[in-house]
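User: You have something folded?
Assistant:
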Amino acid sequence: MGTRDKDGVNLVIQKIKKQWIKFSFLALITLTLLAWISLIPSLDFLFQKEYWLNFKIFSNNLLGFNKSSIAFLSKKKWLIALEETLETLKMSLLAITIATFIALPFALLTARNYAFGSLTLHTSKPKRLLYYVTRFIVLVFRSVPEVMWAMIFIYLFKPGILPGALALGIHNAGVLSKLISELIEEINPKPIQQLVTQGASLMTLQFYGFIPLLMAKTLTYILYRLDNIVRSSLIVGLVGAGGLGMQFRLAMSFFKYTHITLYLMCYLLLVFLIDGISNQLKRLIRFI
């Protein structure tokens, strides 16, 4: 095949790719519009007077109107709620620790350039086999939602922050592994290859190669996942994994509306606290 024929084939392939991108984009917009249109008939309750009356009653109950005992105005209730907030914080910190310790080695093993030798100038059958095995494990970790992991661990252990921490840690280990492995696949291989040619061990590569190149972005990803873990902690708590989520579910079950408001206030305080600390740490990371 001549050069002109190859150019013609490449041109046809490029046109097909462009047409496929346009078709995919239009199909996505069409499906989105159809989804919204199909939702319209189910929104007829918004035009019913009874719905807004029930909404008003529910809102008044949350705010404690016409209630003799209001949980979010009680110092004793606040102390109890803050203890549960501390439990949620413990669960989140345990989870990010578990996720980080699992993700760091798995990220290296699931990086294609490391497994197939383009990064370290060395590969082997066990390393390639380990690549596929760990990649499958990471896929399972992040594909199963935190709630399902929480239900599994609650069955294996008992309700509390440990199943919640394990559930959040395992799921986020899968997410972190993928994010960090993509960072490894994008790094400049020359510094790593120079260390390899000088006979550096895997431990030396970690401390003098990967860590200096990846530390700033890796820490940013870890803080980002911590933000997500704090937000997800309420959801896993709803299935019995302890913390504010579990108390929130109990309050809903027993119609303790002002307790619901109190737990939501504590949850928002925790989210704002973690978000503020995370933002400050991200600013410091920029100087690394």
Remarks:
- The CA atoms of residues 36 and 79 lie 44 Å apart.
- The chain has a mean pLDDT of 88.
- DSSP finds eleven helices and no strands in the chain.
- The chain has two domains: 3-61, 73-287.
